[in-house]
Amino acid sequence: MSVRPYEPQDEERQSDLDLHFTAGPGVRVRRKYAQLAAHSRMHRRCHTFVADDGSRIVGVLSAAIKDVRLGGYSAKVAYLFGLRVAPEARRRGIASALHVRAEQAARDDGAAAVYAIVITDNASVMPLTHRFALQPIGRIETLIVPVTRQRPGRVDVTTERSAETIAQRVDPFFETCDLFAPGPERYPAAGRFALHFAAQGSSFAAVTQSSHSAVLQDIAESVPAFLRPLRCFWDAIRPLIALPHLPARGETISTWWIGEPVLKGPEAPRLLRDVFRHIHNMAQEENVHWLTMPMRPSDRQYPAIREAFSVGRLARLLRAEACVPSLLLFKPLVEPRAIDPEQLYLDTRDF
Length: 351
Ligand SMILES: CC(C)(COP(=O)(O)OP(=O)(O)OC[C@H]1O[C@@H](n2cnc3c(N)ncnc32)[C@H](O)[C@@H]1OP(=O)(O)O)[C@@H](O)C(=O)NCCC(=O)NCCS
Fold this sequence. Notes:
20% helix; 2 domains; 7 helices
């Protein structure tokens, strides 16, 4: 078995390298990647390494190199992501070997640190993070809400799609955050990014929205039995009233990712609710099923953002709203830098 840089020809020899995770009570999702290195298209500079057993590719890990702010300074860091090992090849040290190689590539590229995001209840990956001294520096909750038709809000919401303009508008709000990567490269074409915002007086609220469907496909693997008989009836009446979509087994779930929430001024929480109403209605028209938003519970604006993002009592009652907890892990490669856990930037490309 060798670990080496990815080559496009590896696509023809890949094994079962999908990712499986629970996206809500009883709803299991299978994440299929368009290509082994598909997600790396979100980043300007990215190393992908594969484990080759001679006949097949049995493991993969990528390291995106980013210019970010770290402890008050500009620095290079590597974001490690997309680690998967084929089920039949596990517990043979493949993930460990991939990690060693990716970390070395990060050092060679001058990275001051590496970071990664892992789902909290993923028992198989946690020992690996301990082995490589990746330390938890923040909790993340990824909230998943079903798209529902909404009454239009009271204010006009504007949508902006130019990467340069989005960066100009959003950057000033995050430039003091650790792990913030400034500039338009955060909005690659593969992610189809848009900024939705509303303003009133001195108040302003905005979020970015993107789609990862060019790089990966989420398929509902299992859905709770109690939801299945409801589906036909549900789908018939759903367009008439604001009911959430219930996924069917085997169905591709189309998701929009929401990120970079900005709230400024006393009216911002109300404006943000109107921004989300607008996004739900656009998503409904484009047959998007879920909106997914990573948030940090330690963010002082978290309660307002979460409250605005939630689609309400009905979805909660049907257990259609879900939360996937994860951890942000960090490891300095040169001298330790003081990271502010209260001021961490979450990059939507990382999810
Ligand atoms: C997590 C994963 C990448 C580990 O790959 P692997 O090649 O089996 O890992 P390694 O053989 O290098 O194991 C390293 C250590 O991690 C721990 N570990 C790995 N799998 C484990 C499991 N299922 N249960 C408990 N500990 C586990 C062990 O301590 C192991 O060392 P040991 O075998 O000497 O005891 C693999 O299980 C996988 O692909 N899972 C599904 C995808 C996924 O969860 N990816 C991570 C996303 S963040």
